[in-house]
Amino acid sequence: MLLGWLREWSASLFSSDDNETTPYLQYVLLFQAGVSAVELYLDWRQRKCYELKYIPKELEKQVKPEKFQKAQNYGKDKNTFSILSEVIQTGVHMTLFATHSLPRLWKYCSQIIEKHSFMNSIPAELQTTLLFSSVLFLGNKLISLPFRIYNTFVLEQRYGFNKTTGKLFVKDLVTGTLISAVIGYPSLMGLWYVLELSGQKLWLYFWLFTSSLSILLALLYPPLIMPLFNKFQPLQDQKLRQEIEELATQVGFPLNKIYVMDGSKRSSHSNAFMYGIWKKGIVLYDSLLEQNKDHDERILAVLAHEMGHWKMKHTQKMLLIGLLHSLVLSWSYGKTANNESIYRSFGFDTKAHIIGLLLFSELLTPLDSVLSLIMNFISRRFEYSADDYARNMGYSSYLIEALVTLHLENLSTMHPDPLYSLYHNSHPTLTERIHALEKDDSETKKNQ
Ligand SMILES: [Zn+2]
């Protein structure tokens, strides 16, 4: 029955006939309510795990009772916050659609443009698109602002993570908005012209444009945008530098530069990452170095894991999957772009490219949730194999130490609910990783 219904749904979605009777808006609202209900149920399951009073067996040795309780409290507070923001933000989102507020906003924007056409060389629809998108963008920022303030200055503050000052918060907000404008307006204009001029092959040009844009942004983000928010300094610790260089030579990793990033100016959460296409840069958070002082092997273990990702071409594989995914989406968008009944169902009496895209992305909500499940599954497989790579290099016990330290310092969840974790996490849980690393370890010993 479900399959038949899905077939009917996709057939009506992809037709360009004016099918007055398909209530797309109602379907979308129903789907979104469904997705929210599932997510709230998972939140509730995870919440119950924060009530548990015992330390998981795998962590008994490393975790002190006070630290465990602090992590449980932090998790519970974050859970409350996430439920509240989920309910409010989804509520606002659904109300906007259910009350046909967006068609009214679009109409209002086009009236303003008609009255004072600001730039005569730019088509009126494009001008309206820019105005409409700006209002939506700013509205969205405004709604999420109280949540961001609460998260940074109340929740993170309470557990000693927040290092952001009010001044830095405002500066970040302004810089972020300006960068969005500098990147967003030209991209939006480019996209509009692509959609306007590509005719029958819309899906193909749309796919080419959006894929190249996202690859370009991913490449430019670390060297051009990140330095606007953080300082990057070459690693000073000569001993660690030499050890990292030796590790890189050992695995044939094309190491370019090693930087330390002042992550601690905003938060004491720690991390490390790599960037670059041919030559790779390594970035270590200063907080990571601080937390693993005099334990260089742990940092090397983390980097061996990262080099495992590189060796097994995980980034390229993810990129390929991403490109295929967006190809399917672009093709489907090409099929729905002319279906006028979708526009009418959402209360729009005019067809505009940006509206088509907006409604298409709403129609995709249920599919997106399923796809993110699959992506998380693939990502978890990759994490296991990168751990395995580090283990084969002899870093198994150091990697466990590093992961436990990272987990404790970040007060991450000690008792993850299996279903919650399956849906939300792109990484296996700490205990799952320890199990895999230790299991493999004992097997290697047996085989020796
Ligand atoms: Zn990884």
Automatic annotation (TrEMBL):
Membrane topology recorded in Swiss-Prot or TrEMBL: Multi-pass membrane protein
GO molecular-function term, one example from the UniProt record: metal ion binding
Top-level taxon: Eukaryota
Active-site residues, record numbering mapped to chain: E306, D387 (proton donor)
Reaction(s) the record says it catalyses: Hydrolyzes the peptide bond -P2-(S-farnesyl or geranylgeranyl)C-P1'-P2'-P3'-COOH where P1' and P2' are amino acids with aliphatic side chains and P3' is any C-terminal residue
Family: Belongs to the peptidase M48A family.
UniProt protein name: CAAX prenyl protease
UniProt lineage: Eukaryota, Rhodophyta, Bangiophyceae, Galdieriales, Galdieriaceae
